[in-house]
Amino acid sequence: MKKLRKSIPKILVKILINRLQRSSYDSAFCCAFRYFEGDLKTTYTVQLNRVKILGFLLTLCLALSSHAQEVQWLTWEEAVELSQTQKKKFFVDIYTDWCSWCKKMDQNTFSQPNIVEYLNENYYSIKFDAEMQDEITIGDNTYRFVKSGKRGFHELAFEITRGRLSYPTVVFLDEDMKIIQSLGGYWNAEEFKIMLSFFAENHYRNIPWSQYQRQVKQKRTEQLLIPVGDGGRG
């Protein structure tokens, strides 16, 4: 059991705890996982009986399976730490609590299984409230909330959109967190899936977005027009 515990990176344990705390899962499981995390920092071995081990693993499996069809949203700190061990591009969804189109994109786009699967596999996805008031430190830079008018904005949101704040806005960053592109407005699932592959597969380096979009749609149309065989009957 000790080897099993020590094989799990601490950051993944912390992320799961955060997920559970933000959900409606039973607090007992949070406590169980906190215990699990705590043992990573110690050298002693605690013997658990088979019932406890099986119960823990069953609960863990149920929790993970329930999140299988959801985008694995991370905080900035979580994404940065994970990128230290595995390089991926970063995807940032910038929203506000009052933005109705942001909510529609959550419901209609980010809920689609093909979108969920592609984002989780190819990006570190960050859900970023542009009006959050907590400080965010990335490297040597600390970003803060700026009061402006009735509301305000976060300096990091302002920076990665290059000052063009509108909601929703999606931002793509490369593996070194350099800005590739920010795009404002609502995107349906079909268009958004094309966009994800455009950046994740580095097509943006060689071809304009409009041309890539046409090529993908044309290819899909051609595939639909391929005649279906007659089952081999002569």
In terms of quaternary structure, the protein is single chain
Question: What is the molecular shape?
Answer: globular
How much helix is in the residues?
A: 40-55%
SSE pattern: HHHHHEHHEEEEEHEEHH
Overall number of domains: 2
Q: What's the CATH H-level homologous superfamily of the largest domain?
A: Glutaredoxin
Helix segment tally: 10
Poorly predicted runs are 1-8, 23-37, 39-48, 230-234
Report the sheet with the most strands, covering strand number, pairing sense and barrel closure: 4 strands, mixed
- Might you state the CATH topology name of the largest domain? Glutaredoxin
CATH class of the largest domain: Alpha Beta
Major sheet strand order: 2-1-7-8
Q: Distance N terminus to C terminus?
A: 63 Å
Number of strands: 8
Instruction: Tell me the β content.
Output: 15-25%
The CATH level-2 architecture of the largest domain is identified as: 3-Layer(aba) Sandwich
**Radius of gyration using CA atoms only:** 22 Å
Q: Structural class, judged by helices and strands? A: alpha+beta
Walk me through the structure.
The structure is a single chain. The chain is of the alpha+beta class. It has two domains: 2-66, no CATH class; 76-223, Glutaredoxin (3-Layer(aba) Sandwich). It is 47% helix and 17% strand. The chain contains ten helices and eight strands. It has helices at residues 2-6, 10-21, 27-39, 50-66, 76-83, 100-108, 113-122, 155-160, 189-200, 209-225; strands at residues 89-95, 123-129, 136-138, 141-143, 145-148, 151-154, 169-173, 179-184. The strands form three sheets. A four-stranded mixed sheet has the order 2-1-7-8. Strands 3-4 form a two-stranded antiparallel sheet. Helix 7 runs parallel beside helix 9 (189-200).
